[in-house]
Specification:
Helix content: over 70%
Number of helices: 13
Number of strands: 0
Shape: globular
Strand content: under 5%
Distance between the termini: 19 Å
Amino acid sequence: MMLVLVTLFWGVSYLLMDTALEDLEPFTLNFIRFFGAFVIAAAAFFPKIRNVNKITLMYSALIGLILVFVYIGATFGVMYTSLSNAGFLCALTCVFTLVLGLIFKKQIPDKKFIFVIVICFAGIALLSLEENLKPAPGDIICMLCAVSYATTETAVSKEEVNVFQLGVFQLGFTGIFCLTAAVMFETPHLPQSPKVWGAVVFLVVFCTGIAFIVQTIAQQYTSASRVGIIFTLEPVFAAI
């Protein structure tokens, strides 16, 4: 149920990103989103994150770097495809998690998950292929996001990693990386209208801060495959 709530927040986030992009550029938006969430989470849970080990910080930085590609890709993807397409394609992490597990860990999924993979790839084709049988640019970007995020599961399974601290510090590293890119490629500024401020605040608090910490903790108590299946609700919420 915790993961269903997270999925609801992420489904809503596509509409909010679309609203925020009316004023903010992609790297700036993601800097405010992730670093703002880190500041709130760090202030609220400082006693729990004060003593952090090097392994947790290392994986936090690594996942933060991956999240830069994931969420910048998702942000650009929203600009160049429909919200429902973006929600569906970015949620295909579940499919790519199974595929990567098969390739690199020799984990063979059972028959029902193989059936799900086939159906999902059929859905990709129906949604993203144009008349010339080529996917639109935004669709390709969103699919790359799903592949990137599928690689983050490994960190949660490491015994040396404190998953709560990982959930907080990955937000900070993602924000720092996005700020660096924003300074290099954009002209950073704060939102200029109440509508965009509202979208950004909801993104910071619910779709990022709460969602990422809850997701990181909840993943300990279920399988990666089941997490992936729950996350297929994301495009449903995005379309609604």
